[in-house]
Amino acid sequence: xxxxxxxxxxxxxxxxxxxxxxxxxxxxxxxxxxxxxxxxxxxxxxxxxxxxxxxxxxxxxxxxxxxxxxxxxxxxxxxxxxxxxxxxxxxxxxxxxxxxxxxxxxxxxxxxxxxxxxxxxxxxxxxxxxxxxxxxxxxxxxxxxxxxxxxxxxxxxxxxxxxxxxxxxxxxxxxxxxxxxxxxxxxxxxxxxxxxxxxxxxxxxxxxxxxxxxxxxxxxxxxxxxxxxxxxxxxxxxxxxxxxxxxxxxxxxxxxxxxxxxxxxxxxxxxxxxxxxxxxxxxxxxxxxxxxxxxxxxxxxxxxxxxxxxxxxxx
Length: 315
Known about the structure:
The chain is α+β, with helices and mostly antiparallel strands. The chain has helices at about 100-110, 115-120, 175-185, 200, 210-220, 230-240; strands at about 1-10, 10-20, 25-30, 35-40, 45-50, 55-60, 65-70, 75-80, 95, 125, 140-145, 150-155, 160-165, 170, 260-265, 270-275, 285, 300. Helices cover about 20% and strands about 30% of the residues.
């Protein structure tokens, strides 16, 4: 379970997300240079990036869960648990990739949301490679935003990836976007969220639809930011209200509780990655200019120790 939002302000946009996960997992920041061989397609051909990108990954593996490229295209993945969302065989006339590698493919090859959307007809997601062998292909949907403010939600429908305009700037998990939209409109008027009695009627659950409604309302009614720093502050403030503490939810058969492993927020215009984890609420940042070896793959670990500061250090 995850919650993602696009926070907009006069100078730009922030894409932020809570990474909620139900299994033990290590995560770290990863930078991949232009020309890097980050995966193979389902025919075994190398997939290489045209552009530099950085984001957060699991177990120091190449697939990014969220990230930004050198042109300010930012994207994230969220779990989308629907039955049989993808094809079970390759298509010879398409680019065949796993859903696991699609985020890197998009960030590594495109500058804008329009370029991502225009390329969708060329993409074929399959759970099997050209030899008929199973590949890791999780059910995902994706959200992208670029420096112009253009954004898109991409979901599997009838086994194909389709682009959906999302005026609510929110993505959680399944069901399909239009069902979230229907529930939202049944509860409040999206064009007049101030008229809604949120203190009494805002959903209190952490299911995907409740989080979708809460995230939209909090994002739509939050105070305006005067600059990028305030925009980052407001994004973290919104996501904090949707954060899942450890011990709160444990699914049957799961080895660990479902909780928010990390929170991140990407400054789209400044191409800046910021993030914090569940044990250390200090916010760390990384820009492309911070990378000292831009032609090499760079992995950076989170500091997961609780950070404290003396009040006297402020003076």
